[in-house]
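Hey, weird one. I pasted the DUF11 domain-containing protein sequence into the form twice and got a warning about non-standard characters only the second time. First submission, copied straight from the form history:
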Amino acid sequence: MRRSRGPGGVLSRLVHGALAVALAATALTAAGALTTTTAANAADGDPFDPDRAAVFLAQDRPTTLYRAAQVGADLTFVAEGTAAVPYNAIGYNTVDNYLYGVQQDTQRLLRIGQGGAAMDLGAITGLNVDSYYQQGTFGAGDSANTLYVRGTLDLGTVYAIDLTTRVATPITLSEEVPNTSDLVALEGYLWGMGNDSRIWRVDLDSGAAGSWETNVPAVTYGGQWVYGNGNLGLSANDSGDVIQLGITNATSANPTFTILSTVNGPTPNSNNDATSNPGPDVDLAIQKTVRSAHTPGGSITFGIHVTNNSAVASSGYYFQDELPASLTNPSSPNTECSFVGNLMTCAYGTMAPGEQRNFEVTATAPNSIDPITNTVTVTGNENDPNLDNNTATVTTSPDYAPGVSVVKSAALDDGAVFAEGSTLEYSFLVTNTGNTDLTAITIDEGDFTGTGELGEISCPGTALASGASATCTADYTLTQADVDAGGVTNTASATGTPPLTPPITSVPSTFDYEDEADDALTVVKTATPASSGTVGQEITYRFAVTNTGGTTLTGVTIDDGDFSGSGDLSAIECPATTLAPGATTTCTATYVLTQTDVDAAGVTNTATATATPPGGGTVDSPPSSVTVQTPDAPAMTLVKSADPTEASAVGDTIAYGLALTNTGNVTLTGVHVDETSFSGSGEISAITCPTTTLAPGATTTCAATYTLTQADVDNGGVTNTAIGGGTPPGGGVIETPPSTVTVDAPEDPSLTVTKTASPVGAAAGNAVTYSFLVTNTGNVTVDEIAIVDEDFSGTGELSAISCPATTLAPDASTTCTATYTLTQADVDSGALHNGATVFGNTPTDGEVDSPPSEVEVELPPNPSLSVVKTATPASVDNAGAEVTYSFLVINTGNVTLDGVAVQEQDFTGTGELSEIVCPTTTLAPTAQTTCTATYELTQADVDAGGVTNVATATGNPPGTDGPVTSPPSETTVGSEPAPGLSVVKTSSPASVATAGDVITYGFLVTNTGNVTLSDVVPVEGEFSGTGELSEIECPANTLAPGEDVTCTATYAVTQEDVDAGGVTNVATATAIPPDTTTGGGTPVEAPPSETEVDVPAAPGLTLVKTADVDRITSAGDQVLFSFLVTNTGNVTLGDLSIADSEFTGTGELGEIVCPADVLAPAESVTCEATYGVTQADVDAGLLSNAATAVGTPPGDVPPVDSPPSQVDIDAPHAPSLTLVKTSDVQTVTAVGQVVTYNFLAINTGNVTLTGMVITEGTFSGAGDVSEVFCPQDSVLPGEEVVCTATYTVQEADLTGASLSNTATATATPPGDGDGGGDPITSDPSTTESGSESPDAALPTTGSQAAWVFALAAVVLLLMGGALVFLRHSRRGADEVLPR
């Protein structure tokens, strides 16, 4: 019988289970092999603590969730718990503090809580079903509740999953982004590190993607996250190393990337993913101190203090101290610190609020006095709101102070005087003023005014102890320069070398030695040359200066005192300005004689020398004088000129120039010019001179003017002679030689004539008056003036030319005249040409003539024509009628026209007009002629409403190349149009089957009227189609009367058309007849034409049923059935439903949920249902499910069923049975004592066992064990049954030996078919009881230990039973545990 599952049954299971476990534990303990296994705490699925920053790592299949823990410099991960399914693409949601991820293979949304417990929230829709999703993160701000994921195949897409609807919305990327293994969100962007060192950034708003090279190693990073401090965490799949990567200017076009730290982490296995809870801000501060002062080469110790200034704990931090390279042997007593060279890295884990951690580092200082600067920086895992206190720097210097001083003095040797060659002895007192010994003591001379060489400095030693002194000495021999200077000044410093530092130098010490000496100076002045009468002669002065004193004189200069020269003496140059005693220097200066100096008969000069003695002040020489003599030599010239040199007109002014030049060497005064002879008939002006004093070489130009008279011109010019004079400084007058100039006046006769004609009309008989303006343009009178007419084109006779005067003075004019009457030939020629020349005689009997003068009288012709056009008949009804055109041409001008012709201009006829025939082509003025032509009207002319004709007449006037054209003349022949149109619409094919089939429509349009129609267009009327008809194409859009054209259009049938059963189409056609007034008539429309295309309905449906597992192993397993329904017909199906036809499951199948109940043709939908496996299903070995899909077509078509689809899920049997045998007596003591044996049989397999029996094996008892009684023979998986048997102790059993009993349990599992399977047998189980001998009470060895073991086993089993009870209770509450 089956056991009850009520409360009594549970309690019974607890008791029996506890007993069995206790017995098993006792047995193992007795065998010395008892082991204890601690089970993981059951996950309660609570959200994670938001105030506890954490890095989560998910690995393996099924997936285990780990939490990072920092221990020293290593990062370890502690398991939170393992889910029943694999998942990836996890992200931490700061909204509810859960992790969310995507279940692998099924694309279901999971929520993961504490302990790694995963809750299935349902399937995600919208993802790429072929992609494996391994990248995930949550956004921030408005997208904080959105999970962003990417899969292995989503190179150009990121999906945003709404947690509420589980709908994934694709975000299209601007370019394909390679697989980056994971995603993180930072500053509004998604970031992912590729396996090629390139990091990618995606803009969530626009999908813009970009990438940059980094120095991160090129490996695969399966786990990526963001620390609270804003840095990226990267977990390398190959090594487990964790890199902390900083991003600067993350939102800019050019962000930069820096590896901040690399720590050791666990090596991932598979399915590696990570995310993080950034946690609250944590303010970490660091301080650095120096424990004590150090000495060069001694030990130095730094203290480092890290403090958590926040109200929340820090999850971990590290700091790095790059010790200066000068420090050696670094060490630290803190085990959290390690060294790589001089780089100390200290890492520490959790730090409570307000807690301070203290660290030390000790090193050996260099043997140097250089200061030591050390900087340390701390970095926490969380965001630090105050970075100002994250870095600390300390600088320290050793205690070290060397010093040195020097005092300098000097004195002459005993008995020596202050003179050149005397010896001056110097002393240098050197003292060590520091706290260290000095070596290499030296004296360094600084500023020394002596001009000689100081002797070698001698010191008694080169080393000085602290506080010691020594005197060094040196000798110096005085030079003349030193004596001149009045003494010497000397500065020196002392240098010594401390033991550990570079040499030091004292403050300089200066000593002045002073004395005095006598001074004297002379100068002698000379001049070269001593005499000269030439202005500009350079005189060289020499000044011989001699130092007649006993000291060197400096700053020697010459002071020119009395100097009679009127010019400037040059600067006096001295080759030397310093003179030793007895030395001489000759200074020089130059002077250029002026005219004043020459006029004055000489130049006198006096000078004095001055110098500065060494003691200061000045010393002057006695004066020295010299005189240069200058003799006189007066002389003078005159050059006379005239401007112009040639004059040809009366009244011309002649300007005379008289250039006087002083050619002597003295200045002349009273300079003047006198005229001696003049040929002019007029009066010359007075001679004026700009100056009357001339220096030697100077020139002055005096001036006079004269106006030319007619007599001067008649004489051919004027001649003028003059002399000049002046007074030298010595008195008397000197004169120039005479100077003559002649101005010529050449004869230049000239005449001009200008011929003009009075205006006249271009008509025969009109008179033309000619005028001839004659002008004397020469400089002499001309007489016997006469006009000669030349090149006269007139055909008549010109009258005689009449002149009022025949003699003309220069510039005088006279006008001669003549007249002429025009002939018709003159007018016909279009112009009258005439030329003339004037002739006359000069006073010297010469002849002069003018250039010819021509005049052209324009006689423009005025040709003109007119034409009048008529047509007969004026109106026609049919094409082909002949019209006769007449053109009346009249010569309305004043000249005869030839080549008369008529030209058609605007002619609307579409045919050919005949040749226009004129009876004559020459017309005299007022003459006329009538030309004719014929024309046959075309259909186009009739369509146009008639023909309009415009014509002009042309003729050629005489003497021109171009014809004259008449105004146009127009005539019109009218016609009346009668338009008409029809259309016939057809379709091909007449019937279609599916959406997308193309129908070709034909529109046969015919012109049924009598005029040509244009813009022929078929027009769609009523159209039942739900799609868009293509544009209607016509091979021609113009039709003549009786012509037709077939236009076509295509239409792709839509699903709505198919569902409606067909498409109906009505069309008309329109066209535009001609209009003679506006160019387009009123449109004409054809009667409508209709066609219909049928679409027979052909519904169809298929179903493919699948399951998310291919096998089940135990009751409680969850199976997700999927039903892929596809519309294989040509019409839309509604009211979609799934009918489960054959289902072998013994439980209740969940509701079948379909996301849509309407399917268009070729569309599919996947419905889902879940099922909890029962034990009966497992026992059956197979779970089978068949289903059929049903849909309703549009209209009156009955519903359609799909063929059934079946899925089979294996339930492999794994039967197993265990047996634990015990007895209620530890030791048998008397005959007849009853021993009760208990047989605890446990079904440890996964199928129900039936027919269970207990079989006794080896038994050492002398009697028989009773039949084994079992309360039931059917056992469910995990169920226990306690069977019993008894044994009565026999006398033979009381031997002191053990009473041993062995048994096995046998049961039958279900078979694969209708029958049972092969029986299975448990391993044998043995129990032993001690016995007493019949003659003595034997001690009970080991009984206390056994009972202790048994008691412990019972306690353990009771605990285990409680866990079993809780497990089954939870299963009852949750129904299904996570897989």
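That's the output from the first submission. The warning seems to come from a hidden character in my clipboard, not from the data itself. Confidence is low (pLDDT under 50) at residues 1-43, 1336-1379.
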